[in-house]
Amino acid sequence: MPIDSQTSGSPFEPAAPKVVFEQQLETYFIDKAPFQIPASTKEAIVKYVPWINLVFMVLLLPVVLAVLGLGALFTPISFLGGLGGGLTLIFTIAILVLRALALPGLFNRKRSGWVFSYYGDLINIILNILSFSIIGLLFDVVFLFVLFQVRSYYK
Q: 87 lies in which domain range?
């Protein structure tokens, strides 16, 4: 019985459908990757990264709220600065929301957590391209590599 690309290897257990660009990126971050992360390291990543993510989100919450407050204060003169600041703020809020939505799934090792993290990183890549942040883009590519390496842990 042939198994198509949407199944996980068992004819009785279909895999979750692939999300945007997942199939293409899988080729580069898993199949053609220069190396594979060892299983023990993957296990540590899956175990501790949700906690690290939670701590960073809690630490960033006052900063985001302050920026939102200052943004409201400067709204009447925001046209002078162009669209850059507002666009960055919108992207940042979207990324934070996606990372917050990912937390329960990451803690429970569910695919939904992986997908929300994946989408958050894709939006972060777009933000780094629009803001010409080469260092941020490099970090995002490394994060995507790690995310694809541990994808099999999220069912």
A: 38-153
